[in-house]
Each structure stands twice: as structure tokens, then as C-alpha cells.
Amino acid sequence: FLGNIESSAGTSEEEIQQIATASREHVATTHIIADAISQIRDSMLSTETELPRAAGSAMVLAERAEAIYDALAGSNVETSHDEMRKVAQDAAKAVQRIFTEAIAAGQISQEALFDRRYKPIPNTNPQKHSTKFDAFTDRVLPVLQEGILAAVPQLAYAGAVDNNGYFPTHNKKFSKPLTGNYDTDLLNNRTKRIFNDRTGARCGANTKPFLLQTYKRDTGEVMHDLTVPIYVAGRHWGAFRVGYRSSAPVQAARITPASGPAPAKSRLLTERPAPKSK
């Protein structure tokens, strides 16, 4: 098992370019990543001493898959992630417009929107934080974010994070009332947390047109995470994240930025019909 992971992780840059000519190779690679992480999670390793080696190999393999998809995106080769990338791109544009119009309308200042002085919220575990802008995002982002989840049921989550991985306003299904039980709250109340693990930190900090990662959430699920950066007044604010399982079929809707003076009126276009079988 470990030998297979390390063999795949050793793919050279030249081979990555060769893989970029055939999307089926990328799909196979991403499934290998998901399977590898799942097997590690499910304790299929014979001893605990092998875990660091396996985790490291899976991480290298994940980075190779990111490079492959990045190469594929620059060509005309279609991949299974393209529709999700379009959803994230449209959503990022919509958030950018919501924020820009809100600043122009005096609903929030640019200084407040870029506040990065996170104040711990007492008696929360995992720890949550408040900022000068999270009450604002609680008002204006749910319409957009919940609309995306309704239109694209394959998504596990969809939302805007700042450049430090802070998730000010998570989806409603992850913003349920706190119970005081760690395991329950870890699953059901993930809003206002700073996700500064490797995946979360890279999501917010990324300034490339998009970033695709495959990772294991702190809940144990193996997910694809695709992010697109958000800019406000020429400054990098953060990114829009969408997460979906490696086995999820991709049949996505397109998102359109809001129009008109009210930032909260972002809307979804109708879902694309499934391609007819030939």
C-alpha cells in the first residue's frame, strides 16, 4: 500500500505534463488520493510507526494532483472538476460585488471589512472568533451561499473565508445552536472558526486563479476543496471555498453576481440540465 502511494508521489514534472493530455489520468490520481487518505484514516496501517510515512506520502501525492489539475486547466482538456471551478469563480465574483456595493452604500467600511483582529468568543470549543465584519457577513452572505447549496446538491459546503482561513459566516447546516458537547459542535457548528490547518490556510492565502486540494476534514471525511480568490478595491480579501466528496457526480449550476443596489440580493441562475446521453 505505502509503496503504491510513494510510487505515485514520485511522478516527475515531465510526466505531469504528459498526464495533462488525458483527463482520465487526473481522475484516477484523485481517486488514489481519496482512497489513500481513507485507508490511513481507517487504520489499515499495520503499526503506528508507519503513519507519519504514509501521511507524508499521501501529502506529496496530493500536491502532484494539484499540479496536474493546474496543468489541465491551462489546456482544452475537460476534467471532472471544471463545473465546480466555474461555480466557485462565479460565487467569488458575486461576493466581490456584494462587498464593493456595501462599501459604496456605507453599510460597512473598507477598514472594517479587512479587520484581522480576531476576538475569541468566550466558552466556545472549538474556539470561535468575532471581527468587525462578521455581523455584516451574517446579514449579506447567507442568501448567496444557501442558494448555491440548493442549486448544487453535490456540495458539502460553500462559503467565503478571509485570507487567514477565518470563516465568518458558514452555511446554516453548520451553524446550529451550540450544545457544549465538543463532538456535536465540531460537526454542527463550524462558523466563525479560523481554519489554519494546511488546507484551510492555503485556501484563504491563495492568489492563483484557483486552488484544488484533496484532504481529510477534522470530521474524518475525505473531500475535494476548490477555492477562488476574492478581491475588494484591488486588495486580496480571501477566497470562496466549495467542498465536495471525491465520489460526487458533477452537475453544477452557474452563479451570477448580484445586480442592483442591494448587495444581499445575489441570485442563482437556473440549474444546468444534465447532458443528454448519446
Describe the model.
This protein is an alpha+beta fold and 278 residues long. The radius of gyration is 19 Å and the shape is globular. The model is unreliable at 41-49, 249-254 and 256-278 (pLDDT under 50). The relative contact order is 0.16. It is built from 10 helices and 10 strands. The chain has helices at 2-9, 13-19, 23-41, 51-73, 82-104, 110-113, 134-140, 142-151, 182-188, 198-205, and strands at 119-121, 128-130, 155-162, 166-167, 193-194, 211-216, 222-232, 235-245, 255-256, 267-268. The chain folds into 2 domains: 2-73; 82-268, no CATH class.
At a glance:
The protein is of the alpha+beta class and 278 residues long.
Largest sheet: 4 strands, antiparallel
Order of helices and strands: HHHHHHEEHHEEHEHEEEEE
Summing up helix and strand content along with how strands pair, one would put the structural category as alpha+beta
- How many structural domains can be distinguished in the coordinates? 2
Proportion of helical residues:
40-55%
Number of strands: 10
How much of the sequence lies in strands comes to: 15-25%
Oligomeric state of the chains in view: single chain
Strand order of the largest sheet: 3-8-7-6
- Note poorly predicted spans: 41-49, 249-254, 256-278
Rg calc: 19 Å
Shape: globular
Number of helices: 10
